[in-house]
User: Fold this.
Amino acid sequence: MNNEELKNTVKEKYSEIAQQSRQANESSCCGATGCCGDVDYTIFSENYEQLEGYNADADLGLGCGIPTEFAQIKPGDTVIDLGSGAGNDCFVARALTGEKGKVIGIDFTQAMIDKARENAEKLGFNNVEFRYGDIEKLPVTSAKADVIISNCVLNLVPDKVKAFSEIFRVLKPGGHLSVSDVVLKGELPEVLKTTAEMYAGCVSGAVQKDEYLQIMQQCGLENIKIQKEKVISVPDDILLNYLSEADLSTFKQSGTGIYSITVYAEKSIETSGCGCGCSC
Assistant:
């Protein structure tokens, strides 16, 4: 699929997910019930329930980390959440930045925006807003954010150079990011790379870990460091929807690993250019 087809696949899947409860979304690897079989697993998500600001209605179980845990958000900060879904990370960030801060969630699935706005209205927050927009072309002015967070979303963006260039543009000089995402070490079987459901499920859109970090550096970000890393084990029940028993055995012996990482990076106070590596 080309980039636009990939984006449309993600929109379709996450529009379905937005209409479901977390319990329904946990029944398959990519959220929408039935897309990877009726398997009751929570592969990526972590438990938010003890965090200040947590709201169960906003938690669809779609993340692969807790980026706010490492984001060093301070009272009064402006925080932008990329791929904000139903608002889960935004509301946790709002508890950290306080009433004097600002949280902006951005998502390109309208159903998610609608759900997040409904949740914010129920909570009575007037300093949390949700904007419809594409991460490759963010609907935000330059140098707006003190902190950018994202949770298991950037792997869904076809052009990751554009995404990180936009992150660089939107960060204030001296600002920083903390993003949780899925990366690879080694090569996936070809059938997993080309399966739409596995793309929407945050697997086939993942790039190599070293490449991911190099893209961040290429786009002008500095002091890049991995804050947390964990292995993700996709259950055999799901993989057997796409692989034969023999192919599954070969894959498991190949040494390929799927990982969730949470990464920190900064935009220098003394910075110039747009972050795209082209000195524009």
